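Model: Ready when you are.
Researcher: Fold this.
Model:
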Amino acid sequence: MYDTNDLSGVVEADRAHVWHHLTQHKPFETGEPRIIVEGRGMRVWDQKGKEFLDAVSGGVWTVNVGYGRESIANAVRDQLVKINYFAGSAGSIPGALFAEKLITKMPGLSRVYYANSGSEANEKAFKMVRQIAHKRYGGKKYKILFRERDYHGTTIGALAAGGQPERALQYGPYPDGFVQVPHCLEYRKQWDVENYGERAADAIEEVILREGPDTVGALCLEPVTAGGGVITPPEGYWQRVQEICRKYDILLHIDEVVCGVGRTGTWFGYQHYGVEPDMVSMAKGLASGYAAISCLVTNEKVFELFKDDASDPLNHFRDISTFGGCTAGPAAALENMRIIEDEGLLDNTTAMGARLMEGLAVLKDKYALIGDIRGKGLFCGAELVADRDTREPLPEAVVKSVVTECDKRGVIIGMTNRSLPGFNNTLCFSPALISTPDDIDLILSTLDEALATVPAA
């Protein structure tokens, strides 16, 4: 257990000057903000010395290999004293080596563009699509399709491509050319058919035909929807999506910011479904939060479009990410990937994910307020309902109370947050890939206790 010193000065400095993410600060006028002081493995400690099992990998599915990894810290330190930064117009040793290593995990893809956040990586993809539209299609094939409930970042452009209305409220107007397609959550099904996955994919084709195939440049999807409800795709969905993109010459951009680098039990979530994307964005677990890094990875076909006429000064991708030139990110990412390989964390994620889903199934049988459980690897969700027959969502305040009760008992879980009005009712679980059976069992037993506090549970 962490033995804290007097951190009252730190708490006051935080309360007076730090603007926290996703947080209403009014309660801090009378109470304390939480400060996470230390982390080891799966556990973190706050300023009061209270220990928590972190079942959300840093709050936002990021710390894939757990806390306190000295080998990553040492790799970053050793790199920084050699060369910490140079703009991405030049290369670096860790940048080259990590790109080479990453590509071995992504057959069919070949080029790595470095940036510093998932939002930025997605913005790079959108800019490439728009530039390709001007280079090849007279500017016409510029539209980017995105899916209801998916999330692609917090910038204005990324919010324009986001399918979570509450996140987008009050930040418009948004740029043109971003078009929504229906979600694929069968539990909240929109069509009464047997082959739901194919039908949900066909809905994308209907949007393409409505907009005009000659105007659509790319389709951007999460392999498993994260903050919109932890939605695993129905059988047949991704295969049909691939067919549609190829049919209409539409680039397939897969957002792996959450799913990437082991979270689902494969290196990337799309690899469960046999699809071949043109572009893949990633961040979060790429370096497990030990350094800021994101990547947009493309195939050679996309890359070649930006160097076919060297005499044209506008022909290349005229973009830069200042902190895409930091060397700490790829140095940390290299060591992060080595740990996942050497410790067999993909297999562990599959096994522990199955244990977590089995435990959630037991709790679903016990508590009628669990309407549906969904997941892939250590990326799981439980949708809470007021009525199983009507599937009426449990009020958000009640769902939040379950999260709070887990927190009181020393386990940090998550929930859908400012996503869809009336549907912020899914509990989220994304513990580190190093989870043990005891860790999973503690998450489940704590959730059991928390659910028992809900009236009529």
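Researcher: Now this one.
Model:
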Amino acid sequence: MSIPSAVKSTPIHGRQQLIDYLAAGEKPRDAWRIGTEHEKFGFRNDDLRPPTFEGDRGIRALLEGIASRYGWDIAREGDTPVALIRDKANITLEPAGQLELSGAPLETIHQTCCEVNSHLEEVRSVADELGLGFLGMGFQPKWARSDMPWMPKGRYKIMREYMPKVGSLGLDMMTRTCTVQVNLDFSSEADMVRKFRTSLALQPIATALFADSPFTEGKPNGYQSYRSHVWTDTDPNRTGMLDFVFDDGFSYERYVDYMLDVPMYFSYQNGHYIDLAGQDFKRFMGGTLDALPGTRATMKDWADHLTTAFPEVRLKQYLEMRGADGGPWNRLCALPALWVGLLYDDDALYAAWELANTLTREERHALRDGVPKHAMKLPFRGGTVRDLAREVLEIASHGLKRRNRLNRNGADESIFLDPLIEIVDANQTPAERKLELFHSEWNGSVDPVFKEFAY
């Protein structure tokens, strides 16, 4: 949700404004929507290298080509195109040029999948002429961190300089990971709390089902979701499982207090990003930052600051599910289907919370810590995570069937769970399938992934 212009410049005078901002996201059930985001790696077809920003075959040329052909408006930083906007959707750039679609808020998964497919067709039509392709995986399978280009965005320069001070894998997170997310609504504070707790506890199940990042620099890395592992050594101040969400009395206010303790990255002032990395947002509210003396934080600064924490589930004026690796088009539709099925039907949410609520703090952390390496085969309570995944998918499927949102052929949204059901039935994650190919048909090379799994 964008902030009205009149609100952006409103100075912050106290915590209650910040609490009220989160509460303003509440929507009645008939206004609940589904916002899906996904990132993908670009590569040059001839040498498989990631495209730079400039050049005849660069990301700038791609953005300008998509804009001119398909009616997107170009958003710029100075004179540099950094995003595309059309209706309520955006195409943005991750730090190394990973292309992200931030989809419009839609009513059904059928609409979401149409949006995904239309976007991929638009990108492909322009990319083909530039000799570029795009790949959906959780981690760049071939190229080293030093091979990755950097996009000319002010906030990324600030983050690039700050990340090595707080973790060893933050630059990998920025340049070599891709995810698929879904953003979902809530009707009240109590509804937010129930959905936050349920989705946070079950996020490792999504990580296991979508695990698709088994290679680093052309070799198996010992993980099934290396992307998920990367987050464990990015920045402890802004990542993780947020145990306080499960405490009695969790609320908008408690989340605000968490965010006020998250160190800042930047403030966007007069068209420029001001480096405030590591500084205290509370001091910014009081106008006492040395870098911006006398300047008080505004509600736009607060909205920006909310985007700089990266827990497994993130609260803004909606909830973001952040646990899944990027993947092929059908899993880009499956991720929103999974969480809509669990969270947007009352009976399913009750059943999902009943399951999530049985997990102890130790079990939640054991799942989060173990799933990146073992995915569905992680032992759990005498069985494996596969058993949990099967139960979660059954709840989600019933939830989608009860929603009864039908396409023109009379099929409900549960059809979009089929790729995940196949993964559970085969007991083989996408990562395990690629490792199998690597050790057989691909003869120890990751290069075929760019052809066989490209969009």
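Researcher: Key takeaway?
Model: The chain is about 40% helix and 15% strand.
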